[in-house]
Amino acid sequence: MTVGQPDAVVVGAGVIGAAVALELARTGRQIVVVDKGGAAGHGSTSASSAIIRFNYSAFDGVATAWEARHLWATWPEHLRLTTRRPLAAFRRTGAVLLDAPGPAPSGVAALFDRAGVPYERWDAATLRRHLPGIDPGRYGPPKPVDHDAFFAGPTGELGALFTPDAGFVDDPQLAAQNLADAAAELGARFLFHHTVVGVDRRADRVTGIRLADGGRIAAPVVVNAAGPWSGGLNRLAGVGGDFTIGVRPLRQEVHQVAAPGGCGTGPGPGPVIADPDLGTYLRAATGGHLLIGGTQPACDPLEWIDDPDEADPRPTVHRFRAQVTRAARRFPGLTVPNRPTGIAGVYDVADDWTPIYDRTALDGYYVAMGTSGNQFKNAPLVGRFLAALVDRVEAGHDHDHEPVRHRCEHTGNVVDLGAFSRRRPVGAGTSRTVMG
Ligand SMILES: Cc1cc2nc3c(=O)[nH]c(=O)nc-3n(C[C@H](O)[C@H](O)[C@H](O)COP(=O)(O)OP(=O)(O)OC[C@H]3O[C@@H](n4cnc5c(N)ncnc54)[C@H](O)[C@@H]3O)c2cc1C
Fold first, then answer.
1. Does the N-terminal or the C-terminal CB of the chain have fewer CB atoms within 10 Å?
2. How far is the CA of 356 from the centre of ligand 1 (A)?
3. Prior bond of 141 cis (ω within 30°)
4. To test ligand 1's pocket by mutation, which of 193, 229, 304 has the most ligand atoms within 8 angstroms of CB?
5. What pLDDT is attached to residue 105?
6. Residues 311 and 322 in one domain
7. What average pLDDT does range 163-184 have in this prediction?
8. Which of 97-101, 151-155, 178-182, 317-321 has the lowest mean pLDDT?
9. Would the CA dihedral through 239, 434, 306, 19 be positive or negative?
10. Ligand 1 pocket mutation pick from 32, 45, 233 by most atoms within 8 angstroms of CB
11. C-alpha of residue 15 to centroid of ligand 1, in Å
């Protein structure tokens, strides 16, 4: 396959790559997006729980999620599509962030205050009033469900932070398709069923990519948005030597069960529940179901894998039992079926579970990677981050020494993109879990 020279190639048409393509197209660039899959959003995006919440360990993470939420809430306006198509929808359910084991989460509240995220502090009585089916007992830290200690009585009661503006996107794959359609309307071309097998360079400058069928696409800018395959693409590009942050693919299951009563107050879907005390999260799904995921409790082994293509997409009995039993401890009306139902996806986990949105030492080669199971919510804004980075760096700005700052259109917050640098100090106060 031979393609006329675009201004930029984006590798990956997941929710991140499609968002990057849209925002780069909006800068007037000719864009080609290459994906080995058959359509936008068929990679790890397709398995996403697509929860939109705002609690992250650092201000820039909170401010990013809060701004991106406004883009989901005004999705048609964000996309500016000129033709009618089915659109993904943001469901505003609110999110209940139960207290984590240890001291009360005053740090999160302080970040919400600074970023302007509305929240309420709930005690156990308020939790019971809003969620009649909940057991607000304090059981943490999480324990394996086959240990007696798991069934020990509570040591007290939990409170929570409630953020009324949180929720979820009902169809993550469709959201990626919406972004791709909007980019295509601006002239972006999507090449599906094509695998990038090489990155061309001349000295320290990227010059394009090579495809498995022998084709080449020359371009002065290449963006790695390859999801869990991003580390492999960097190796092909000979990039990564100056990164302080590594990435690794992690298989992760999300289970689906019938929702018991008492997970919400009204007829609509109940709130998202983040439960670090037991090590799970829950959100409503279609047909009266719940999605149940995990928050990587320290007592559970992590399932690191070498090749994302080898990840078995089927749920396993033992992980299903662990996650659903934990959720059933919190909502005793929930029954744990014998047969596992759900899916497995793959996270592109960065060492500190914070993404890398940055230039690299190879001029013209950018990365939007390391999304660590927590960046679906930020995707529309990540497109803007990458467009700003490409614009500024290609114009000669030294982002490594003076990080680009992004002023958020809706919230007015300023995000320092240095927070997502490939060269940031590792371990600077993050949760080191999917919570970010
Ligand atoms: C189970 C699960 C639950 C999650 N839940 C949430 C959540 O509730 N909230 C949240 O905010 N985030 C969540 N996430 C994280 C979020 O979904 C991801 O961060 C996001 O979808 C990653 O998008 P992406 O575009 O980077 O990757 P992908 O969707 O994986 O896209 C990468 C694309 O690159 C293509 N590609 C890779 N290598 C090549 C190559 N060499 N040549 C051509 N194409 C290539 C692939 O085919 C793929 O389509 C979850 C993730 C998982 C797996």
1. N
2. 14
3. yes
4. 229
5. 61
6. yes
7. 98
8. 97-101
9. negative
10. 45
11. 7
